[in-house]
Design a protein that fits this description.
Length: 213
């Protein structure tokens, strides 16, 4: 089970999270978000170990801006959280790891994902809201049973210490990782490192349990 922590913004908080060694660290490059990285110093991301996949999160951004920020911050992955088409995703597929996010509710049609199959590396399933993520709310994870494609996915939306153990009940073969964000914050863009430390321990124990099973 991979661990992605998203919405990082403050240099000291980023440095503290680095010591926990998440698999992915997300930086929101979307100005309306309260977790917008703004003019985050490049030196901050340069200090992150290469084993942590630095991920730029974009919402309906132009290819030019995405390319510019990939170069500036040396992003290894991008998460596309807007109305990006399969063709748009394909522009980046062989350059960086591409995650395409979708807001999911009980009526979500997973057939809509088929055109993306050869153009993304992962899907990310978040709770459907009027905004682009960060709601702190979960969706009914039972709807994941309707997902039958062979692209692995990250689970996002309202994951917290209160419901992490429930993830062990999800027996989907394509569940690749979890995305931790607003429910681990003391303020937007500021993570509670001790809560994350506890979460990492729980998630790694879940993975050990699956191997033993």
């Amino acid at each position: 089970m991979k661990i992605k922590v998203c919405g990082m913004r403050e240099p000291s908080n980023i440095e503290a999270l680095t010591t926990l060694a998440p698999d992915y660290m997300g930086f929101i490059c979307y100005e309306p978000s309260p977790r917008y990285i703004d003019e985050l110093p490049v030196a901050v991301t340069q200090a992150i170990p290469a084993a942590i996949q630095k991920t730029g999160v974009f919402v309906s951004e132009t290819a030019e801006v995405i390319t510019e920020l990939i170069t500036k911050y040396n992003f290894a992955a991008i998460q596309l959280h807007g109305n990006e088409s399969p063709e748009f995703c394909a522009l980046f597929k062989d350059k960086v790891i591409v995650l395409k996010a979708f807001g999911v509710d009980e009526q979500f049609d997973f057939e809509l994902l088929k055109p993306y199959l050869n153009h993304v590396d992962f899907f990310l399933f978040d709770t459907k809201t009027d905004k682009h993520g960060g709601s702190g709310k979960t969706f009914d994870w039972r709807v994941l049973d309707k997902y039958t494609l062979n692209v692995p996915f990250f689970l996002s939306g309202g994951i917290s210490l209160d419901n992490l153990s429930e993830i062990a009940k999800i027996e989907h073969p394509q569940l690749y990782g979890v995305d931790l964000n607003s429910r681990f914050e003391t303020a937007p863009g500021v993570k509670n490192i001790e809560d994350l430390r506890t979460a990492f321990k729980i998630i790694k124990e879940l993975g050990t349990h699956e191997l033993r099973s």
